[in-house]
Amino acid sequence: xxxxKNKHIGCFFKNTTERRSCCNPQKxxxxxxxxxxxxxxxxxxxxxxxxxxxxEANDATLQAARKTRNEVVGQGIxxxxxxxxxxxxxxxxxxxxxxxxxxxxETRLPGLFGEYSFTxxxxxxxxxxxxxxxxxxxxxxxxxxxxxxxIRTAKLAAxxxxxxxxxxxxxxxxxxxxxxxxxxxxxYDFDPAGIDIVQKIMKEGDRIASITHNLxxxxxxxxxxxxxxxxxxxxxxxxxxxxxxxxxxxxxxxTEFPDKNSVVIADFxxxxxxxxxxxxxxxxxxxxxxxGFDSKKIIKISCLKKQNGDHPVYRITVKDYGTGxxxxxxxRLFEPFFTTKPPGEGTGLGLSISYGIIKDHGGDLHxxxxxxxxxxxxxxxxxxx
Length: 385
Known about the structure:
It is built from 11 helices and 12 strands. By secondary structure, the chain is of the alpha+beta class. It folds into 3 domains: 9-140, PAS domain (Beta-Lactamase, 2-Layer Sandwich); 144-219, Helix Hairpins (Orthogonal Bundle); 227-382, Heat Shock Protein 90 (2-Layer Sandwich).
């Protein structure tokens, strides 16, 4: 990779006047030493303005982002670190930079496909103002990643319990509303307009009842009958149910399955529910990016046996090349009612329920995504015997 060196790299903490003076050819300057120190740091380091614009980056950052210096400097921090964001969604990292306060922020750095911790250090000028902020990235250890995962899981469990409590309180009165509406329809004569209003009351009541049921399912996944099943059979059964829709949308499905029989201990119906939800999300993302027919409308589904530490697992991956997702929202995807779809097109419960089902099976569900490139949903389930 050709990396253009910056002759002012040793002076980026100085203001413009000081920089001109320091880098005057007639004066002695330790630019070379500072440049060597800066680029000698093995972890990615960036210097940004409070508005998130990058003004300097070391070699490790360029290698991690797989970009040249000219492609990084002058860009927004969210675009380089998170791969970008949607206009209506704020980047938490950009928002925090505006406060100019020191912090350790956990995030993802595309190109490394791992979990990183960012140390955010504001740099004060002689007059006390903060015009530059230094960000130093450090890859999290396996123990630290487990800690992050446990915190996320505990947070989701707490949200689920709260949601289930609310759902129980709402369930009884909404059942009464639906029943009373049915009594009105059965015992009283209404004109067509009146009948239509009562039917709409029942329809909306049923919708609320469905949401409360899903909330309860998310918090306390129903444990159905579990037995040794082949995950490939579940995938094929799920595809059979949506194959016509996918073909109508011009979506091609590419599969990669093991040669030998695979076995997991699971509830066939519940895992099918998860897969149908993931496939549906991929279909939505592809249609949103490519409304018509396009050769890039592809969903890749694989089921491969892997080792997770000392334990064998089956990793089921559903990957599409649709709209992708901003990195800044990935941690919220499994929260109840959080949805990236427009109002009226999603309740934000599908992934929450799917997450609960997989966790209840002793597995894990996580996501990798880069905006305008791809989304990859990964299920890991313990291998059966």
